[in-house]
Design brief:
Layout (H helix, E strand, L loop, with lengths): L1 E6 L3 H12 L4 E4 L13 E2 L1 H9 L7 E3 L1 E6 L5 E5 L5 E3 L2 H14 L3 E3 L6 E3 L4 E3 L2 E8 L6 H5 L3 E2 L9 E7 L8 E5 L3 E9 L2 E8 L5 H5 L3 H7 L8 E3 L5 E2 L3 E2 L2 E3 L14 H17 L6 H24 L7 H7 L1 H11 L2
Helix pairs in contact: 1-3, 1-7, 2-7, 7-8
């Protein structure tokens, strides 16, 4: 019997496996797809995520950025906040995934090909297919089959429209050392430098339109892109997902599987890394039930700030004025950005 079976071989699952191997736990990752997998992702690592990767012994090639800038979709107003400590890193999803997979292999993490079907949670072990482990970490993504199978998935608790994300790469030299967020009436466009000759553009919103139609809402950004060659579009959603709990007996939920509010604050990878570290710490110290509290503590700043920003975004008076309000209160904007950058 192995100590830990990780369901899902994405960044959250591989980070969990690396921490587990470092803690001396025999670990297997169950994943049906070959590495690396390209998915919709903002691809911006906040400073806290960069430090978390360093703790895993991972250095990835990317493009540094030093803060966040909000801009109106067509107007001249903007607000920016630079990080007080450290820098962020724009990294292609495939590059990050490959680096995590390589590190896991170096540490002796085993890989099994398959899906989490026929889940059997017992008093002393968990069995999935032909694999049996003392504990399971479900890191199987936004629409986690394990979360659903365990009855932990909860329907949306809001009347707000569901939000979706799309991402595309453009072959253009980055024009800023900041991640730029353009705000239109219905959507946001995030521009992240991921190499010296490439930026990633992620559009978030509730309108289910093709990427090019979405981009028409951002004339200032379109002018910057200048007709640059573009790659394929990746999409994800609905983004808001609820879990009733993060622990079910010997099964723990990590990353997006543990529940997700929105990509509005760009913290997806940072949250995945933080929850992976917290889960393994609880398992290694014999306190799996303590993970629920640890997860809440680790994700509290993200949940509070994202919920507040979503409320503002959907408010009929405040929503159109988010950029002017951020520009009018620089200390408050800087404080929010640096709270998320921890």
């Amino acid at each position: 019997m192995i100590d830990l079976l990780v369901v899902g071989g994405g960044p959250a699952g591989l980070a969990t496996a690396i921490h587990a191997a470092g803690a001396g736990l025999s670990t297997t990752v169950l994943e049906p797809r070959p590495t690396p997998v390209d998915k919709a992702c903002g691809e911006g690592l906040m400073p806290g995520a960069v430090r978390a990767l360093a703790r895993l012994g991972i250095a990835v090639e990317g493009h540094p950025f030093h803060g966040i800038r909000y801009l109106e979709a067509a107007g001249p107003r903007s607000a920016e906040a630079r990080f007080r400590t450290g820098h962020g890193l724009g990294v292609r999803r495939t590059v990050l995934h490959a680096a995590l997979a390589s590190r896991a292999e170096q540490l002796g993490v085993r890989r099994a090909t398959g899906r989490a079907e026929r889940l059997d949670v017992g008093e002393h072990a968990v069995s999935i297919e032909h694999l049996t482990a003392r504990h399971v970490v479900a890191a199987d993504g936004l629409h986690s089959p394990v979360r659903h199978a365990l009855g932990l998935h909860l329907p949306a608790r809001t009347r707000r429209p569901a939000r979706y994300g799309q991402r595309r790469h453009f072959a253009v030299r980055p024009w800023s050392d900041l991640v730029e967020v353009y705000w239109s009436r219905h959507a946001e466009a995030y521009v992240t430098p991921v190499s010296d000759g490439t930026v990633g553009v992620a559009v978030l919103g509730s309108q289910r339109l093709p990427f090019d139609r979405q981009l028409e809402q951002f004339p200032a950004l379109l002018e910057r892109l200048g007709g640059a060659r573009a790659g394929p579009v990746r999409g994800a959603g609905p983004l808001r997902q609820h879990a009733g709990a993060r622990v079910h007996g010997r099964v723990l939920l990590v990353g997006d599987a543990a529940g997700y509010l929105d990509a509005l604050t760009g913290e997806g990878i940072a949250l995945a890394l933080a929850s992976a570290e917290a889960a393994v710490h609880c398992l290694a110290t014999g306190r799996p039930a303590g993970y629920e509290r640890a997860w809440r503590r680790a994700t509290r700043p993200y949940r509070l700030l994202t919920a507040a920003l979503l409320s503002a975004r959907h408010h009929r008076l405040v929503g159109p004025r988010i950029v002017p309000l951020a520009a009018a209160a620089p200390p408050l904007f800087r404080a929010g950005v640096n709270l998320l950058a921890r």
